[in-house]
Design a protein that fits this description.
Layout (H helix, E strand, L loop, with lengths): L1 H7 L4 H26 L4 H10 L1 H7 L1 H16 L7 E4 L2 E8 L3 E5 L5 E5 H6 L3 E2 L5 E10 L5 H13 L11 E7 L4 E10 L3 H19 L16
Antiparallel strand pairs: 1-2, 1-5, 2-3, 3-4, 6-8, 7-8
Length: about 230
């Protein structure tokens, strides 16, 4: 019933999961108090006992209190919301629920991860879904002796053939470094956030295929051995 009411009022999904989790806990506490009253235990005595144990319980649950406060901070400042892809505490995934103590992520391989809200509110969170666009980067190595102008022209042609790559900001291609066994070319393009991985993998395949067709060779690590004369 609560879920339908919140959905009817178009309450944000992040707030919905938090409120439902909080209400469930409050109703459980009220149910316990009601059952104790039915068993003949005076609720005033129980309340006094609960109050006297409050300090001890608070100390024991200090971590959960921090997580509860962290959940409120997450909802207030909204560094992420349900449906966002985030990275924090060494893990990444899509935010499925924001509960009062934990935020639940679903990873790309369908694992479920529970991260304490206290850690999320006080730690570093990378939100990959916050902005509409993202930059995709590659560093491609080619053999020494390859014509760089040909390499750059080939890369720019590949880029122009992919309609998912945005024209603004303009794609960037440059000679990145002269490495020990390769000439490294850096490629940077901007895409819509939802196209990031599709463009990344498709460009890898396209660059490999077209470079082979154009006779542009990829390097292999080489070691020169000098034999000492007797």
């Amino acid at each position: 019933m609560l879920a339908r009411l919140l959905a009817k009022r178009h309450v944000d999904a992040s707030i919905q999961s938090f409120v439902k989790s909080l209400v469930n806990i409050l109703l459980t506490i009220l149910l316990i108090i009601a059952v104790i009253g039915k068993l003949g235990v005076e609720t005033t005595s129980f309340a006094a006992l609960l109050a006297s144990a409050g300090v001890a319980i608070g100390m024991a649950l200090s971590g959960n209190l921090q997580n509860f406060a962290g959940g409120l901070i997450v909802l207030l400042f909204r560094p992420f919301k349900v449906g966002d892809w985030i990275e924090s505490q060494g893990v990444s995934g899509t935010v499925r629920e924001i509960q009062i103590f934990h935020t639940i992520l679903t990873t790309a391989d369908n694992k479920v991860i529970y991260i304490p809200n206290g850690a999320l509110s006080s730690g570093t969170v990378t939100n990959y879904s916050r902005e509409d666009t993202r930059r995709v980067d590659w560093v491609i190595g080619v053999e020494y002796g390859e014509n760089y102008d040909k390499v750059e022209d080939t890369v720019r042609r590949i880029i122009s053939e992919d309609s998912r790559i945005l024209n603004t900001p303009e794609p960037f291609v440059a000679l990145h470094a002269l490495d020990a066994s390769s000439v490294n070319v850096v490629i940077r393009v901007w895409v819509k956030s939802g196209d990031y991985w599709g463009v990344y993998f498709d460009m890898n395949k396209k660059i490999y295929s077209v470079f082979n067709e154009e006779g542009i060779d990829f390097p292999f690590p080489q070691l020169t051995v000098h034999q000492a004369k007797d």
